[in-house]
Amino acid sequence: MSQPAAWDAYEPLALDTAPLPEYGSGSLADLLPTLAAGLGVPGTTAAITELTPADRVCVFLVDGLGWEQLRAHPDEAPFLNSLLGTSRGGTGRPLTAGYPATTATSLGSVGTGLPPGAHGLPGYTVRNPGTGELMNQLRWRPWTPPHVWQPYPTVFELAERAGVHAAQVSSPTFRDTPLTQVALSGGTFVGRLTGEERMDVAAEQLAAGDRSLVYTYYAELDGAGHRYGVGSDTWRGQLMTVDRLAQRLAEQLPPRSALYVTADHGMVDIPFDDEHRIDFDEDWELRAGVSLLGGEGRARHVYAVPGAESDVLTCWREVLGDRFWIASRDEAIAAGWFGPRVDDRVYLRIGDVVAAACDDVLITASEREPKESLMVGNHGSMTPAEQLVPLLEVRS
After folding, report:
1. Are 209 and 358 in contact (CB under 8 A)?
2. Which whole-number Å values give the CA distances from 341 to 114, 255, 284, 334, in the listed order?
3. 3-state secondary structure string across 260-293
4. Cα(169)–Cα(163) distance, rounded to whole angstroms?
């Protein structure tokens, strides 16, 4: 396997120039196993070697809070920016989300401690090999038995079995969702509507055990970025709220605690013009030989009509190869995009062709995906703006 290029110096086109996630040492999939290992949970490994164990650990995951976006807005997030030097155990370095850099995939990685090729949520929408249908892994449509789709235990379940007090504090909406079941189940779920309530309850849950592992979540920053763009007034207002929430939680940490503020992905704004938004539904070349279009605008899974796989790969490379990393399924797997291994049950969920944006460009689908095609902010690929996420630390 070729070595990944440096995050700040990569060239497009060649597959070995795609800056790979740091699976096994500095990705989201490595976070909870590292924290759980510090709590003495069997079957977990401290892969992020820079982190120091604590008796009580809280992960505050802010949907859409990319490393580059946070650093670009110090006035809106003074508290979080003051912690940049603490990221990743005081190295001042970010984590990588994993590919694709999207919520369902990242939450699967966080909760199971496994990369996408193992936990099996390798995109926003992917083909279910058993039915031939596209399956939306965020909204879980059409219905698929959750623990058949993702059979591994979560780190919270492992922690609970080891006698650690495990808890998730989130919106009540997420209590019984299939994504929660396969990625974040185990221990106590506490539903609270407001961000302030979640911070207060997260602190209470930390104090509820001599050894505690607590997760809390905030989604609204991501929603603002999708609708209005990163840096919009609405997005900046949400970032200010996140900053206050993080400080509120930090100031309530019980003794022997560590708080980690992280994210599932970053985000980039894509201009609304034909150069930057390529409409699959209006492009006969891209549609030729394609039976299903999965993934999302910056991280596409392309499923070919049987027998047309090679032709589709060639066409997509000719049309998009100067702005996307275009790989066959086997090439993407061999390059390590989805982690060091891909389970057999996951293999055919990955597209016959995988397209990852390396430029400020989007493959929309105006007829198939009308709402997604109108989003200002987007994510999914391996560029630093999407892939790099903070791991800010506060200890008591």
Report:
1. no
2. 10, 39, 35, 9
3. EEEECCCCEECCCCCCCEEEHHHCHHHHCCEEEE
4. 19
Using alpha carbons, list the distances in angstroms from residue 125 to 176, 237, 313, 352.
20, 30, 19, 14
CA 202 to chain centre: 22
Question: Tokens 């944006």 correspond to what residue?
Answer: 357
Structure tokens given for 287 = 């549609």
For residues 100 and 88, give the distance between their C-alpha atoms in angstroms, rounded to a whole number: 21
Measured distance CA(338)–CA(118) in Å, rounded = 8
Task: List Cβ neighbours of 290 (8 Å cut-off, separation of 6 or more).
Answer: 302, 303, 304, 305, 308, 312
Task: Kindly provide the residue ranges of all beta strands, DSSP E only, lying in 33-120, ordered along the sequence.
Answer: 56-62, 95-96
Q: What are the percentages of helix, strand and coil residues in the chain, rounded to 5?
A: 35, 20, 45
Compute the half-sphere exposure of residue 23: CA atoms within 13 Å on the CB side of its CA: 23
Task: Name the residue among 161, 147, 148, 151 with its Cα closest to residue 43.
Answer: 161
CB 288 within 8 A of CB 309: no
Per-residue pLDDT in tens (0 to 9) along the chain, 396 residues: 444 444 454 333 589 889 999 999 999 999 999 999 999 999 999 999 999 999 999 999 999 999 999 999 999 999 999 999 999 999 999 999 999 999 999 999 999 999 999 999 999 999 999 999 999 999 999 999 999 999 999 999 999 999 999 999 999 999 999 999 999 999 999 999 999 999 999 999 999 999 999 999 999 999 999 999 998 999 999 999 999 999 999 999 999 999 999 999 999 999 999 999 999 999 999 999 999 999 999 999 999 999 999 999 999 999 999 999 999 999 999 999 999 999 999 999 999 999 999 989 999 999 999 999 999 999 999 999 999 999 999 999
Query: What is the value of pTM for the model shown?
Result: 0.95
Tally of CA atoms within 13 A in the half-sphere of 219 that contains its CB: 13
Structure tokens at 305: 């009509």
CA dist 170 and 218 (Å) reads 7
